[in-house]
Amino acid sequence: MDQKLLPFAVQDVPRYTSYPTAVQFRSDFAPELADQWLRELSPETSLSVYVHIPFCRQLCWYCGCHTSVPNSYDRAARYVDLLVQDIRRTARLVGGKRGRVKHVHLGGGTPTYLDDFHIGEILEAVDKGLGLATDAEVALESDPRTLTAARAKALAFMGFTRVSFGVQDFATPVQMKINRLQTFGLVAAATDYLRQAGFTSINFDLMYGLPGQTEASVARTAQQAATLAPERLAVFGYAHVPWFKKHQKMISDADLPGVAERYAQARTIEAELGAAGYAAVGLDHFALPHDPLTVAAASGKLRRNFQGYTTDISDALLAFGASAIAETPQGFMQAARDTLQWSERVAAGANPVARGLMLTSEDRLRAAVIERLMCDFAVDYGALAAAHGFGADHFSEVPGKLAPAIAAGLASLEGTRVSVPPHHRLFLRSVAAAFDAHFTMAPNRHARAV
Ligand code: SF4
Hints:
There is one protein chain. This protein is of the alpha/beta class. The protein has 15 helices and 19 strands. It has a domain at 20-318: TIM Barrel (Alpha-Beta Barrel). A hairpin with a 2-residue loop joins strand 13 (325-328) and strand 14. Residues 56, 59-60, 63, 65, 67, 108-110, 143, 166 line the site of iron/sulfur cluster.
């Protein structure tokens, strides 16, 4: 690794799945305001829906998600009852034309922890309350260890169009260190079940920086994953935050690769997937050339939201479940993280929002600049400032903020057009931080750049 890159690789920077980031959300956000924002949505607003299922069968030691292992299925069944109640309540507030829901994503946790009946109940509530578009993209995250041929058929029958598997690494020594044993054969069989059920869009998540991973292990995993031909892959660096996620204490610091090794692993995966015919999309995604994500990236239509990179162009994202974040034209609203607290609020017929943020016109401008940079690797921030009604000198501090990245070769600036060379995509977040009015260097506040 070039030593010039090192200070950027160890920086803690936001993932910029939103701007402002969730760190800025305010805890004095009133539930009445959240309801008002929902009522104010135009009847024509196109909608996207996220549903959070905070349950898993067992805990992976690397997990950074908001999840838990329930001691009985009854807890999950009760949670689904409340989800349905909250979806119906929101639908009454939103009203409007039917068939506006273009995207649905069930994430977690593990949505397939739920049985078919409960998954179907959630989808039915979304469809009856808000109205699924006939061509809606309906995705869910699934644990390949529990996916059967019958379940794959059931998911297709319910209307799911994409399934995402957590693969991470196929090497058994790595899997033992992260408490997630799943052979290549198991993932291959699960992928086959999906194909036989008619799925034409499958996503794999891979990771680098896990305990025991080496360049050789990630290269082999990427090669093996590519033989199964998922349409998309997302590649994330492991974030070791045991003071925040207690179960990560099961991972020994001594087993973790250093920053140069993490960088080499990320670049190795990139090279292997590139050699297998995948196009690099944004910071950390890969997709086959015909995939809509690749097409959107090539035509400047790629978007970034809380689920990462997407083709979703909906005007509002409605979110359901503990910790889920909604985004409307007015701002962000995050439901209570604590499942008990969330349950009590929903059971009482209240909006379960716990934090939120009203956007200013300045936030919208910065959000637009950061999103285009994260998606296109380049943005003319002067042109965007003018389009948003701001003066030419609005970002006068930016050249100074960008100077260290430019000196290291991570970015270049021509007039007000900043660009990042594609081979430095891993550092996109560090460059985007120059446009973040709230960003300060603070250790452990965000995830490390590499
Ligand atoms: S299955 Fe996913 S959400 Fe559940 S513990 Fe493992 S990594 Fe976390």
